[in-house]
Amino acid sequence: MNTPTSAFRIALLAAASICTLTACTVGPDYVKPPATTAATYKELEGTGWKPAQPADTITRGAWWSVYADLSLDALEQQVAGANQNVQAAEARFRAARATVAQYRSSFFPVVTANGDYSRARTSENVLHKSTAGLTLNDYLVQADASWEPDLWGRVSRSVEGAKAEAQASAADAQAALLSMQAELATDYFELRGLDQERQLLDDTIKAYKEALELTQHRYAGGIATDADVAQAQTQLQTTQAQALDLGVQRAQLEHAIAILIGQTPSTFSLPVAPLIAVPVVAEAGVPSALLERRPDIASAERHIADMNAQIGVATAAFFPSLILSVTGGLEATNYSQWLMAPSRLWSLGPALAGTLLDFGGRASVKEQARAHYDESVAQYRQTVLTAFGEVEDNLAALRVLEQEAAAQDDAVAAAQRSLAVVSNRYKNGAITYLDVVVAQTTALSNERNAVSIARRRMAASVALIKALGGGWDASALPTDEQIVHPAAPASEAAAHG
Known about the structure:
By secondary structure, the protein is of the alpha+beta class. It has helices at 4-22, 42-45, 70-76, 79-82, 84-104, 154-220, 226-260, 290-293, 295-316, 361-427, 433-467, 480-484, 488-496, and strands at residues 54-55, 110-121, 135-147, 281-282, 321-332, 344-353. The protein has two domains: 1-25 and 109-149 and 320-353, Outer membrane efflux proteins (OEP) (Single Sheet); 31-107 and 152-319 and 361-496, Outer membrane efflux proteins (OEP) (Up-down Bundle). Strands 2-3-5-6 form a four-stranded antiparallel β-sheet, covered by helices on one side. A two-stranded parallel ribbon has the order 1-4. Helix 5 (84-104) packs antiparallel against helix 6 (154-220), helix 7 (226-260) runs parallel beside helix 11 and helix 9 (295-316) runs antiparallel to helix 10 (361-427). It is elongated, with a radius of gyration of 37 Å. It is a lipid-anchor.
């Protein structure tokens, strides 16, 4: 006579035999789709431009250190742990990892248990019933187990897709971190550029005050006119207003930096300091390497793997499912007999079920899965093209701005020489102060343009590092083992690269 345990074992062996015989995981196996790449970047190949300060290596996780700015280093180190967008992205990764565990649980039986007590009386007027007119107790404790063997790979494909989506979420978390770090560096260098421009305006205001005093003395001596004094005053006050206007931009940048590091703007401030960092041109490498260096590209590729697995899930719906279930427990009317062997109960039975006709419902789901896969492939390739474009854009910006900076430096030197000549001629009474004003305006405009170009070069340098992935690599993605059995280092790696 078979016991429940032996019968259940027989059923498990039968299911295992079926799985072995079929060996089916339906749906297409994942193959990474190709993406069009060039042999080299146009801005490095066809222009003849040789970066003056290339950064051959970008430190993974601390790419900003190439700028050798201690204040920036201190700020950047706070982004990973304090920026709320980064924290949200890391939480989404943990949720995706939990989804993997949820799908993996379908590989195993579901076991439930319940206990029950009732006391009931049956009517005496019920015919042909042995309990008529009796008041009976019912003591019951029972366990149920059911298991659906993964005959067609539905669960396997679901787990496969969930793992790919968890890896995509990990890449998204890294992309969010890189984006916030790059935004912080850009805002920081913009702020330092404003500090340098403010220093330039302050020095200019000091020079304009001296020029005004000179003009007033000349006016008192009858050498200059009141128009000269008015022009000198206008030039001074206009420049003072320009210097004050920079305060609005600086305050806004300071507030933005505070938010990026998770602080309230009212509690954060940065001391004034000039822009001392120089633009760094990160080593671009070959375009094909970019596919492994950009977290957004890695995320898009992992999303394709998820969509491919969903085709398998939809395909498995065409095949029947086998469910094995077993129930066992103890039931008795008298409490004293409840836990005895004769009170045991059990049942065991497999169930095979499948859909014979659904008028195209499953076929539509499968077609939808294929369409989602095609969409994800197109999005992946678009992400790759966008990435190449960003690298080319910033290489071009750095190349052109380097040439523009050299030309602007020459313009500044020429404007300063012109101002010196005009000032001397005015002191000698050869010209009016209007000529001095024109020379002063030209010199200041060129000097401010030079500072503006310096800020733009720093922004392009940061944008290039971001476009190249900030030193990240696809090997930093959590492995299947880290997703299934998470540990602290794996979690940190997912969020921080």
